[in-house]
């Protein structure tokens, strides 16, 4: 004979699996629980066996081979984050995007500081297409990459995979010349507005346009196209506040150009390849990089990926 406490335990088990049952079966079990323990216990003992069989079958049908008493437990893998130690801002290991894109993996992160007071304006994370992180050694100039190569002064571009090692910004420029996706996720450490971000991006692009002009690499047609594209980019940013902890993402798709996203919404898309490439390169400039911390952390992350040589480029 079952004791009153045993019946209570069995009743609790049934209560756990009750929500998973069809309505008619659930009503029957509820009625059994209303009986006196001495009468209900034998019925509940048999019923629990049926209940476990039912939930086990449901688990198999749904592909959840887990404890049937935990059918309602949250079984999905939790997101993995890295935290910027200077701002406590979290960055997901895989970047969620509104724009269709290959999976992007977090490579490194760091804080941007401004003025002599070193005010922490925002944290930024750099993401790279998952396939590229596995095959960096197949990209010209990256065969023997170490973190110091990205942090060192620039060197001439190689003609092929066996040519002298690239360094500095030229390394990232060569990486961005491949058909790969990458992104910079920006999360303010204090309330700001889109106007500040827009103006910072605009100044950076105009400055880089001026440098390219001095090198003689831009034609008049290039100059006109880039200037028009910069004006278009400025229209993507609404007149509103960006609160601390909210994210703005600059996505460079595999085909080039730039997509600006804010909290899962697409603010605008620009197809100009020069804008996409050089906006990302502002974070890896040989001098005046947006965040030295970001650049250093990305260099370490890329070294880790480059040393883990798997597969071939394009897989």
Automatic annotation (TrEMBL):
The record's annotation in Pfam families points to:
Chalcone_2
Molecular functions per Gene Ontology: intramolecular lyase activity
Task: State the InterPro entries in the record.
Answer: Chalcone_isomerase, Chalcone_isomerase_3-sand, Chalcone_isomerase_sf
The residues covered by the Chalcone isomerase domain are 104-299
Domain of life (superkingdom): Eukaryota
PANTHER family named among the record's database cross-references: FATTY-ACID-BINDING PROTEIN 2
Q: What is this protein called?
A: Chalcone isomerase domain-containing protein
Q: Which organism is it from?
A: Cryptococcus gattii serotype B (strain WM276 / ATCC MYA-4071) (Filobasidiella gattii)
